């Protein structure tokens, strides 16, 4: 049976990331949103928290402190509470680090892992999502054909975070259209490879500071040595499940931010001689928000717990992803409602969390667990 009592290390990690988010992310979040800017100096600040280095074995230059999806869920909830756009951008190197760590060949680990635990932020990312309304991560339309010692990539990806500055992009592609998730490969493509085109920055409803890009591959040729895991390949479902548990945990962070803000506001806002928190219609919204935040967290942690046990987490991760995406919207909507007209204006952050929270039903495949 799952036991989510945090151990001493996890409590310390939670405390450290909570303080970091309160000091480094929350104070700049509104301005970054208004200006749609990602502050470059933040990348190294988050890098120093050691998300990559802690997980990488000593022989590749890391600290080898072990890796746990539950602990990651705890950390990303705190960071996303500070700001989810900045969190997603700063953690983008994990999108390449995790697949290589879990499935890379020895040569690939020796080549890439030392770079992923160096002193400076290493700008790499991944491209999974595709720009069509029927997008399904189990049915990718970006195709990787093997021709001798080379792989030829064709297709279009969207919402690739920080792709404009990435030195390498990990591209998920199918062996053939309709070949299913078992055929999905992860291929490392270098910046500047002929046939790789980074499009315009995407313009979205929320996540404004996070630079997201459309990426096109037209007969883009890479050596077969860039196929993560070589002929053995990757366990694509495990990476999808890691992503879903982590995105669920980030959604908890956004929902919790809105709930806590609305709770404080409702206790201080007097209307008709009483704090609005004592009115039943507001109290019910606050109580439901508290229930949903805890429920979302339990589902995200349960999926992460199963992943830590190397069990099939497909069901748990899918439930976590769906539930967290839906209930985040309920909680952030209540956040706006509880503030009344003040919730609709940009003076308060609830409208920003509302816009950011909406992204969780769209985002997929940011495997950073
Ligand atoms: C798009 C928009 C346009 C607007 N345009 C105008 C305009 O042109 N002119 C203008 O004067 N104003 C305008 N307003 C302001 C609007 O009239 C107020 O926002 C509204 O009256 C609510 O007041 P408030 O924002 O102070 O919220 P509050 O009164 O603080 O309410 C906050 C929350 O508490 C709840 N609540 C408050 N009192 C009670 C109670 N007794 N029992 C139960 N629940 C309670 C409310 O339902 C709400 O959910 C606009 C607002 C918006 C969002």
Description of the molecule:
With 369 residues, the protein is of the alpha+beta class. It has helices spanning 8-35, 40-47, 69-82, 84-90, 94-103, 106-112, 236-268, 280-308, 314-338, 341-344, 350-357; strands at 124-127, 143-147, 150-161, 168-173, 185-190, 196-201, 212-223, 270-271, 274-275. Helix 2 (40-47) packs across helix 4, helix 3 (69-82) packs across helix 7 and helix 9 packs antiparallel against helix 11. The longest helix has 33 residues, at 236-268. Bound molecules: flavin-adenine dinucleotide.
Features:
369 residues; alpha+beta; 4-stranded antiparallel β-sheet; 3-stranded mixed β-sheet; binds flavin-adenine dinucleotide
What portion of the residues fall into strands of 2 or more residues?
5-15%
**Helix and strand pattern:** HHHHHHEEEEEEEHEEHHHH
The spatial strand order of the largest sheet comes to 2-3-7-6
What average pLDDT do the residues reach?
95
What is the helix tally?
11
Hetero groups in this structure are: flavin-adenine dinucleotide
Structural class designation: alpha+beta
How many strand elements?
Answer: 9
What does the main sheet amount to?
4 strands, antiparallel
Radius of gyration: 21 Å
Helix content: 40-55%
Amino- and carboxy-terminal Cα gap: 21 Å
Q: Note poorly predicted spans.
A: none
Shape: globular
């Amino acid at each position: 049976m799952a036991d989510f009592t945090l151990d001493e290390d996890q409590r310390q990690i939670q405390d450290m990331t909570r303080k970091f988010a309160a000091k480094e992310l929350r104070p700049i979040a509104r301005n970054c949103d208004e200006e749609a800017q990602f502050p470059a100096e933040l990348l190294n600040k988050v890098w120093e928290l050691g998300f990559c280095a802690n997980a990488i074995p000593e022989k590749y230059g890391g600290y080898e402190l072990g890796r746990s999806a539950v602990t990651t869920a705890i950390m990303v909830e705190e960071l996303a509470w500070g700001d989810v756009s900045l969190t997603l951008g700063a953690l983008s190197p994990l999108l390449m680090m995790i697949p290589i760590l879990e499935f890379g060949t020895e040569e690939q680990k020796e080549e890439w892992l030392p770079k992923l635990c160096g002193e400076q932020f290493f700008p790499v990312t991944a491209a999974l999502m595709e720009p069509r309304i029927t997008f399904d991560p189990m049915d990718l339309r970006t195709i990787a054909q093997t021709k001798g010692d080379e792989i030829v990539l064709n297709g279009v990806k969207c919402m690739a975070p920080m792709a404009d500055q990435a030195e390498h992009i990990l591209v998920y592609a199918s062996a053939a259209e309709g070949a299913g998730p078992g055929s999905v490969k992860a291929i490392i493509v270098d910046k500047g490879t002929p046939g790789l085109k980074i499009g315009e920055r995407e313009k979205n409803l929320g996540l404004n500071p996070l630079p997201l890009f459309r990426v096109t591959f037209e007969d883009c040729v890479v050596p077969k040595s860039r196929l993560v895991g070589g002929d053995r390949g990757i366990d694509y479902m495990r990476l999808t499940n890691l992503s879903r548990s982590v995105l669920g945990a980030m959604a908890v962070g956004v929902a919790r931010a809105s709930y806590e803000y609305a709770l404080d506001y409702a206790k201080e806002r007097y209307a008709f001689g009483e704090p609005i928190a004592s009115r039943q219609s507001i109290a019910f919204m606050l109580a439901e928000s508290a229930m949903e935040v805890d429920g979302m967290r339990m589902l995200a942690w349960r999926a992460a717990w199963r992943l830590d046990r190397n069990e099939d987490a497909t069901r748990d991760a899918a439930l976590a992803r769906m539930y967290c995406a839906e209930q985040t919207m309920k909680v952030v909507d209540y956040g706006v409602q509880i503030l009344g007209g003040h919730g609709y204006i940009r003076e308060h952050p609830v409208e920003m969390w509302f816009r950011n929270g909406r992204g969780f039903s769209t985002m997929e495949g940011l495997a950073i667990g």
